[in-house]
Amino acid sequence: MFDERYSLAFKLYPYERSADQDSAKPVRHPVVVMGGGPIGIATALDLGLQGIPVVVLDDHEGIGQGSRAICFAKRTLEIAARYGCADRMLENGVVWNVGKVFHQDRKVFEFNLLPEEGHRFPAFINLPQPSFEKYLVDRVRAAQAGGAPIELRGKNRVDAVETKDDHVVLDISTPEGPYRIEADWLIGCDGASSPLRKMLGLDFEGRVFQDSFLIADIKMTADFPTERWFWFEPSFKDSGASALLHKQPDGIWRIDFQIGWDVDRKEELKEENVRRRLDAMLGPDVDYELVWTSIYTFQCRRMKKFRHNRVIFAGDAAHQVSPFGARGANSGLQDVDNLGWKLGLVIEGKAPDQLLDTYDDERIFGADENILNSTRSTDFITPKSKISHIFRNAVLDLAEHHPFARPMVNSGRLSMPCVYDRSSLNGPDALTGGPYRTRVGSPCPDAPLGNGFLLSHLGGGFRLLAIDTEAPHLIEEDGISARRIRVSAGDDKTGALAARYLVDARAAVYLIRPDQHVAARWDRFDEAAVRAALRTATGRE
User: Fold this and answer.
1) CB burial class (10 A; 0-12, 13-18, 19+) of residue 463?
2) Pairing mode, if any, of strands 98-103 and 106-112?
3) Quick check: 239 pLDDT over 80?
4) Helices (H) then strands (E): counts for the chain
5) Which CATH number fits domain 4-91+122-204+300-356: 1.10.760.10, 3.40.50.720, 3.30.460.10, 3.50.50.60?
6) Whose CA is closest to 446, among 78, 46, 98, 76?
7) How far apart are CA 191 and CA 262, in angstroms?
8) Exposure check for the chain: N or C terminus, fewer CB within 10 A?
9) Which of 150, 97, 100, 137 is nearest to 121 (CA)?
10) Which string of b and e fits 291-329 if b means at least 16 CB within 10 Å?
């Protein structure tokens, strides 16, 4: 028996005949997104809210079975807030900040991912991917009602793609037969097995890990707290080399067992064998219902390039990592966050085509960072030699009693937003001695501001954040405008704004990109410097 949120009940965009199917020649669209998962829908939402027409093609009609991703990070919620759907995610998700690490039957230590106050969102929420996707689609429907030019086409399978210098031609199959369209830009968000990638003869580079993990989503009433619990070499029988426990909404719990490489998957997925492992972990007196089971292996790989002229890849279609650290869907949303504003400016003729090359540069940098962290996590969780296993357990023993060893424990470095330190779009960092966490290239940290929060005033366009100083209401340079957001450190009684953005309580001016990353910063307003930074941030210099 499956809980509704894991079933095919989310048939969100059933097949409907489109006008394109009756056109005598292929209709040209500014943007076509291939794939209707969370990354594809978020891409359509980002562009549609800018007023850019976008068509999403998906071979299904909504959300499939299985909870899949469940951990959504603070940065993802901040991005979703700009799209207008974060509140529902937060309201229906399970909030957590604390994780605990165990070795066999001993607790090694615990950690808090968000120990400081002054943020609108928690470090993480646990929310099944079908629910996450549904809230994105619901927001698309609301945006459509408000005039956003977004079209979702279910049961529209892309069978062939032909690339031209200035557009892409797509052959599509539907229940009523084939048709053809054209796109100025095609965004591939069609997942890890990406048919689009294969159609173009492209592939991944990287590493495949020879291990298997059994997922069991179960419904039960339990006394476990709302925390992330990870066991190395758990003492309960049949649990494998590691185990992970997460709480989800509505009494659903996610449990992962590391079961090794040479296993019979069909045998392992039999209900009696899954229950044998669960019973050993939970005890014989715990009553539970199986909601979803699957076995996965994982890879840490990426495409050599994400942009191929008029075709751009995002999310799992562009890169894959192990699930430890919740870096898959969260990094995919950062892809959308990075690509949306750049593609919007290029389509509107406000930035050169070369701006899209910086999507390639910045998000490959982000993918490499995720792959590095994910690989290190996997190597620590699954030692590849006897000596590495001895070292791993020695670190765990030390960490139980000595804080210095705890940073070496790696049960999955949890997703953090990427800092674009070496980006060609970065302007000057002229705030001498400015806080490191708000350096140029970093995503803006949130802070209380009056009755709300700072990030609700940033993003969606360039912003000139003036803290305790003057600046013009609007700066325009080559068709790009930066609107001033003027605040005072005194607007935040907690002191978080000053601590995160100022030096010794003095003034500061920040140029903020549409994706809320810092483009440049100064200790005072300088019009010539701001204009130059705007040109740099849009790929003009």
Assistant:
1) buried
2) antiparallel
3) no
4) 12, 27
5) 3.50.50.60
6) 78
7) 26
8) N
9) 97
10) bbbeeeebbbbbbeebbbebbbbbbbbbbbbbbbbbbbb
pLDDT band at 5 (very low <50, low <70, confident <90, very high): very low
Q: Provide the token pair at 80.
A: 């979703």
Round to whole Å and give the CA distance between 363 and 79. 16
Pair type for strands 429-430 and 518-522: parallel
- Find all residues with CB under 8 Å of 503, minimum gap 6, and list them: 431, 432, 433, 434, 435, 523
Quote the pLDDT of residue 10.
64
Q: Which residue has the tokens 């469940």?
A: 70
The letter for the amino acid at 403 is: P
* Cα gap 187→175, rounded to integer Å: 23
Output the 3-class SS for 18-65.
Answer: CHHHHCCCCEEEEEEEECCCHHHHHHHHHHHHCCCCEEEECCCCCCCC
Distance from C-alpha of 141 to C-alpha of 133, rounded to nearest angstrom: 12
Which alpha helices (DSSP H) does 212-302 contain, by range?
Answer: 265-268, 271-282
| Strands annotated E in 199-250 | 204-220, 228-232, 242-247
- Look up tokens 């000057």; give the residue: 428
SS3 499: helix
Domain ranges of the chain: 4-91+122-204+300-356, 206-299, 370-408, 429-537
Which pair of structure tokens corresponds to residue 110?
């615990």
Q: Which of 26-30, 408-412, 475-479 has the lowest mean pLDDT?
A: 408-412
pLDDT tier at 374, thresholds 50, 70, 90: confident
Residue position matching structure tokens 């071979």: 59
Question: Left, alpha or beta for 511 (phi > 0: left; psi -120 to 50: alpha)?
Answer: beta
- The torsion angles phi and psi of 325, rounded to 5 degrees, stand at 105, -5
Q: What is the mean pLDDT of residues 1-17?
A: 64
Share of residues in the chain with pLDDT > 70 (%): 96
CATH number of 206-299: 3.30.9.10
CATH architecture, domain defined by 429-537: 3-Layer(aba) Sandwich (3.40)
Phi, psi of 445 (to 5 degrees): -75, 150
Query: Residue 507 phi/psi, 5° resolution?
Result: -80, 165
Token digits of residue 339: 């690509």
Separation in Å, CA 279 to CA 238, 256, 285, 408: 9, 14, 9, 32
List all residues 6 or more positions away from 418 whose beta carbon is below 8 Å from its beta carbon. 331, 334, 362, 365, 366, 369, 443
- Rounded distance, CA 519 to CA 355, Å? 14
Collapsing DSSP to helix, strand or coil, 123 comes out as: coil
- Token pair 């028996």 is at which residue? 1
Return the structure tokens found at 455.
């990030």
User: Which helix (DSSP H) or strand (DSSP E) does residue 487 occupy?
Assistant: strand 480-487
Tokens found for residue 156: 């529209």
